[in-house]
Amino acid sequence: MEKVIYLVWGDGERPERDANFEKGVVEVVARGVEATEARGGSVHVARQEIASRWLKRTVPPAESLWCMTSVWLDDIIEREAYEQELRALGADRYDSYLVTESVPRWRPGARNGQLSAGIQLLSLLNRPDPMSHDEFTDYWINGHLPLSLTIHPQWTYVRNIITRPLSEGAKQFDAVCEHGFEEPDHLTDPRYFYGAGSDPDKLAENQAIIAKDAAVFVDRERTASQTTVEYVIKPAFTPRALPGLEYAGPAQL
Length: 253
Hints:
Layout: E1 2-9, H1 19-36, E2 40-46, H2 48-54, E3 65-73, H3 80-86, E4 93-105, E5 111-112, E6 115-116, E7 119-125, H4 133-151, E8 154-165, E9 175-181, H5 184-188, H6 190-193, H7 200-217, E10 224-234
Antiparallel strand pairs: 1-3, 1-4, 2-3, 2-10, 4-8, 5-6, 7-9, 7-10, 8-9
Helix pairs in contact: 1-3, 4-7
């Protein structure tokens, strides 16, 4: 089984910034999943009301990212029918990538029917020069990941290492990370996001730790983020948390 992700880009203005747009995206992706008889399918749709709070941060925003869809296929040669359905969205470009997916943290019940619970942060990552792709992957798995899951209150964490782009001229990224948060405040309130609670000294300490760590393997000028909600059209499998990486809840204020 192979996972393909599609980054769907517009000019910064979606046709509609409301539930009607989300409904239309879900319908398009559902038709694509059915047309390809895919093993699974999901879509992350940008949520501007959360992004307006998150994008005050210094990480460059992916403001023109309408959505990201994921489809799990027996073979990537089956993706043509899926892509035909995606074109109905009328976006400016559709960048597709073959990825290797890992799910180091998962919380049972994090998905509730089609609309997943909570809020998602998509991070579109690029490594700094002269770090190699293998070095980037190794540091993310063995260095950044344990630190991130100790400090940040993600209740789900999905790592997508890009194996190769599938569409001609696709934007360059090394990976896409799907961070799931139980509540929007766990992402947008630094006291939760940096695991500090009401301790200002711990907040400053954790912010410095994360900034130093991220600088090792992420080129901030070529990395972007967007806040989304996730719709699961068809679950490809049931993830489970890795031992020792279970979600323990946010810091208490």
